[in-house]
Design a protein that fits this description.
By secondary structure, the chain is an alpha+beta fold. Helix content is 25%, strand content 24%. The radius of gyration is 17 Å and the shape is globular.
């Protein structure tokens, strides 16, 4: 089974890129972030014609997450991260696909620091941390993936000293990520490539992609049941070089059969 996450940075504006990638790679399950489309504007027909079931949680102008499945139907579990009834941002979607709990997230950016956006990010992470702990304790196969907007360590950023006071790299944010990992989750890409430079995002400015001045902020976390099946993975970084593409590249893994 091939599972991927991709921040498309506008599902309608980048639809040709998304469809091209889906056709070339044919992942079995895909989590999308930053749809930037209200619920009724999601390109369901085009996605269906590409061979995918789709579940999505849209939002006008910003945010938005979706889960696609090529072979198996999708059973929705939740589209709300518990703990804040006033939170209306579309950043979470959870479903069951082929017996696996798939959690698609678009964690808040949090900039500028300090400020209310950073406070919202930290509150969101706390709610998320409680949920991942509950999910882990269930003991069922689970995968949590998406745009975390977190740079876990210095090796995950080009010139990390420039990011010290950025909300993606603040010490509080990295500590919270470590607390989530301490629950027992496996960072799939870092497990496969413990010593390599891995980036998943390159800014549009200052020729960041050409200079390989990137960040690793898109992550795939696996429960023990799935970590034992991890076979391969990587970043489709060439997609970042396509015309009119997202500033993120798709991140993928493959799992051996149970």
């Amino acid at each position: 089974m091939k599972i991927a996450t991709y921040n498309v940075n506008g599902v309608n504006g980048r639809l040709p890129v998304l469809l091209r990638w889906l056709k070339e790679e044919q992942p079995d399950v895909v989590c999308l972030q930053e749809l930037k489309a209200p619920q009724e504007k999601f390109p369901e027909e085009a996605i269906r014609d590409a061979g995918y079931y789709a579940l999505w949680h849209g939002q006008k102008s910003w945010n938005g997450v979706a889960i696609l499945s090529r072979k198996q139907e999708i059973t929705e579990v939740s589209r709300i991260l518990a703990g804040d009834q006033g939170d209306v941002q579309s950043r979470y979607l959870e479903a069951i696909i082929d017996g696996i709990s798939v959690c698609c997230i678009y964690l808040p950016n949090g900039n500028p620091y300090p400020g209310p956006k950073f406070d919202y990010k930290m509150g969101w992470i706390e709610r998320f941390k409680k949920h991942t702990a509950q999910l882990f304790k269930q003991g069922t196969p689970a995968i949590v993936l998406g745009d975390f907007n977190i740079i876990p360590t210095e090796r995950d950023a080009y010139k990390p000293e420039k990011w010290v006071n950025d909300a993606l790299f603040r010490v509080e944010v990295r500590a919270a990520f470590e607390e989530i990992m301490a629950q027992g989750w496996t960072d799939a890409l870092r497990t496969l490539y413990p010593d390599e430079t891995i980036y998943t995002f390159w800014d549009y400015f200052r020729n960041a992609y050409g200079r390989d001045a990137g960040l690793r902020i898109d992550h795939i976390l696996l429960s023990p049941e799935l970590a034992a099946r991890l076979a391969d993975g990587g970043v489709h970084r060439h997609v970042r070089g396509w015309e009119k593409t997202s500033d993120h590249a798709p991140v993928w893994i493959t799992l051996k059969d149970a």
